[in-house]
Each structure stands twice: as structure tokens, then as C-alpha cells.
Design goal:
By secondary structure, this protein is α/β, with parallel strands linked by helices. It folds into two domains: about 1-150 and about 310-380, Periplasmic binding protein-like II (D-Maltodextrin-Binding Protein, domain 2, 3-Layer(aba) Sandwich), CATH 3.40.190; about 150-305 and about 390-425, D-Maltodextrin-Binding Protein, domain 2 (3-Layer(aba) Sandwich). It contains 17 helices and twelve strands. The chain has helices spanning about 1-30, 45-60, 75-85, 100-110, 130-135, 155-160, 175-190, 200-210, 230-245, 255-260, 275-280, 320-330, 335-345, 360, 375-380, 395-410, 415-425; strands at about 35-40, 65-70, 95-100, 135, 140, 145, 150-155, 195, 245-250, 265-270, 290, 310-315. The longest helix has 27 residues, at about 1-30.
Amino acid sequence: MKKVFALFLVSMLLLTACSSGSKSDQASGDSKDSNKITVWAWDPNFNIKAMNIAKDTYASENKDVQINIVENAQADIIQKLNTSLSSGTTKGLPNIVLIEDYRAQSFLQAYPDMFHELTGTFKAEDFADYKIAPTSLDGKNYGLPFDTGVAGLYVRTDYLEEAGYKVEDLQGIDWNQYIEIGKKVKEATGKQMLTQDPNDLGLIRMMIQSAGAWYTKEDGKTPNLKDSEELKVAMEVYKELLEADLVKPVSDWSQFLAGFNSGDVATVPTGNWITPSVKAEASQSGKWAVIPFPKLPGVENSVNASNLGGSSWYVLNVPGKEKAADFLAKTFGSNSDFYQTLNTEIGAIGTYKPAAEGEAYQSADEFFGGQKIISDFSKWTEEIPQVNYGLHTYAIEDLLVVETQNYIKGKDLDKALEDAQAQAETQLK
């Protein structure tokens, strides 16, 4: 992440010198619209599959357009975009690129002329509100929202029952209630409540977004750590979870999966994209449910809904942009049937509101005791507070990880956040 951030800073320095060059490059290039659309994305089992389904769907609209989908690791896409866009050249770039929502503003604000505006090609009001801020700039839409990282609390119903609880007892809870329930579950079953990688603050991210807060102020640039009530409460909850011995430490993805597949933990608070991994352990069918994400205790604006992850599609300002925009608009931008197919084939839950009325979204899942989990996730998606992820999510988090560990080891919380704030202000100037 530090390398990526460093490259971004270099890109910013080069921007002024290269902005005029980028326009002339485009003007002197081939202005003809070809019938070929190139797409860059990562994850062959999710994003690439989704784009292939879109490709097949669009063929009925315009069979003459050839869509070439190229798999790249997310880190490679970031590096290639920064390298090309900072140099002012569009040669070799795709027509469509997938960008994680947390990173989108860093590209849109650094290279505004390099992205094709999508305002009017789709109805922004048809998508979850929280996706519009990171995909827009100056009131204009540049990204077409794709998947949601809507979070839920996956719970082992059998463990809860051993401790005297029903799923209904956990509806609408806050994190203090979660901790009290966790203590009784551990006493009754010997199981801890959740896994946690100390170098991954995704849980903190979800907690603060549930209250409409982020690591930066509303401008998306100014660090907001030492004066953030939401972050302070989230950090206190985080430490209390550890001190109550409700956390099973993990250090990588495979250990994270093993934590719940092996039955070692009673809950998984995370994004809906974990559903296939939970269901991978067939022997646990009927023993899981998903309930709304816990809210922050004592924080007035906090709700039982949050987000972790998610990406959107962007069209680069290169020849073929109109056809690329049309392709996105007629698939991800407006096709409810397409979203039913996405959900059925790869388990994707988009942020397109009309799709929630479809059959796939309303189906019961026997693994989760017949619960209509897709319908529930869709409902929670519309409740996620909208925040400006801004330019520096991962750069700030790198600093905050260190101070979080210092706080856990005994450092005063206010001092830890003050130090993180000072470092952020110094590094992000």
C-alpha cells in the first residue's frame, strides 16, 4: 500500500506538467469508434465472470461489438493506470476498468479529464445512495456502481441456542450487547465470537461507516482521527472485544476462512461476499443465519447497516468510449434480469435497486435455515450511510494499524489518535 501511495504522490506532481499533453495526445490519436471494447478487471470467479455474463447479455443488443475481457491483479491495474495517466498517454489503456470504491476518488480527482462522464447514461437514483459519492465528482457521475460490500453478522444459530439465545434476540443490537452475548456464548460453548487479523482494520471501517463517519472529513482529504467520536468508540469496542477474549487471532485469508468453517467462532461480521465461503462447509447447513450489522453504542447516528469493499466500472476517455458507456448502461445500468443471472450464477448482489424485486433476490436459502438472505442484504444496502471515502483510506489505515496496536498495549487512546492524526497530516500534505 505504501508503494501505491508513493506512486500516487508522484502522479500528482506530474499532473500539472502533463495535463496539456494528455489532451493533445487524445486529439492526435485515432478518433474513430471501433467495435472493440477492452475491459480490465480482477478476480476470475467474481468480477470477470460478471463481465462475461454482461458480454453475453449485450450480444442480443449489439452483436457487432467485440468485448475483450483482460484479467489483471488489482494492484497491477492500479499501477498501470497511475503510470499511464500520470504520463498523459492513453495508449494501451482499456475502454472500461474496474476500480475499488475506496480508491476511486484518488483517480477521479487526480485525472478528471481521463474519465468519460456517465451522467445521463443510467439513473443514479436507481442505485444505492452510498455508492454514488465515491463514483462521482463535482456532481457528475463517472462510475457505474457495481457490487455491494453490504455487511451482515453471520451467526451460528446452534451456538446461540446453547447460550440461551434466538436469532430474534440479536436483531438491532449494538456492540456492547454483542460483547455481553459473546461472553455467554463462550461460557456455554467454549467458542470465541470472531476472528481478527491485527493488521486488517476492516472491522473498524465497518463500525465507523455505520455512523456515517470515515478517516477523513467530508472533503475526503483532511484526516479526521483525533476528533472523531465514532472512531474513538470503535477503537474502544475493538479493545474490549480483545480483552474479553472473544477474538481468535488470524494472520491471513486461509486462517480467516478456517476460523468459521472449522466451527471455532460463533459469528462472522463482514461483507456479503463471504457467503460462498460460509456455504463451502456443507456439514454446517441449517446452522447459520445472517442478521443486521451491530451499531456503535452511544453514537446517535449509528445504524444497523454498513459496508466492506465493493467496486464500480469506469469508462476511460479513449476512442470507443460511447460504445463502452452504452454497453455498461444496457447491462449493469438497467437490466434487472441480468442481475438475477448474476446472483444465481456467482452470488453477486448489485446495488441496482429494481433488481431486488426479482425472483433470485427473493429466494430462500436452505443453508441459512430458509432465510431470504439476498433480500435482507438488499434491504440493508439501502440503509448504508453514505460517506466520502476520499483519497487516503489505505494510507491512513497503515498509520492507524500501528497506533491501534499501541493502544491495545496500553497507550492512552486520545494520545494514540493524536499521534496518528499528526502523522497523517505530515504524510498527506
